[in-house]
Amino acid sequence: NWIPGQSGASRRTVVVFSVGRNGSLSNPRISRSSGHQPIDDAALQAISRASPYMPLPAEYVGDAVQINFTFDINVLGELESSGAGI
Questions:
Q1: Which of 13, 32, 39, 60 is least enclosed by beta carbons within 10 angstroms?
Q2: What is the pTM of this model?
Q3: Domain range spanning residue 37?
Q4: How many domains does the chain have?
Q5: Is residue 42 a contact partner of residue 4, using CB atoms and an 8 Å limit?
Q6: What is the predicted pLDDT for the residue at 3?
Q7: Of the candidates 36, 50, 52, the residue with the CA atom closest to the CA atom of residue 4
């Protein structure tokens, strides 16, 4: 699910999103940009493609849980855009 495109540098993207009681994804957004739009877009797509998530445990008292997920990429040269991902 993580297909960042071309970069040529070390990058970090942080995505924040919520998972509802039933495992539904809501409000995914970039909270820290890598400074490279294709990498940020790939991070958001990975979060979306991985949904729906597992339902929250019955003993969890909230209606949703907020998650901050960090994507790190270290590239030596260019990535191929074949869709193979990393």
A1: 60
A2: 0.75
A3: 11-73
A4: 1
A5: yes
A6: 60
A7: 36
Task: Indicate the pLDDT class of residue 8, thresholds 50, 70 and 90.
Answer: low
Nearest partner of 70 among 38, 20, 32, 26, judged by Cα: 32
Which residues on adjacent β-strands are paired with residue 66?
Answer: 18
Question: Does residue 60 lie in a domain region?
Answer: yes
- Strands 11-20 and 64-73 turn out to be antiparallel
Residue 4 neighbours by CB distance under 10 Å: 23
Q: How many residues does the chain have?
A: 86
Question: Which tokens belong to 49?
Answer: 């493609």
Residue 84 lies in a domain: no
DSSP 45-70: HHHHHTPSPPPPPTT--SSEEEEEEE
30 domain residue, yes or no: yes
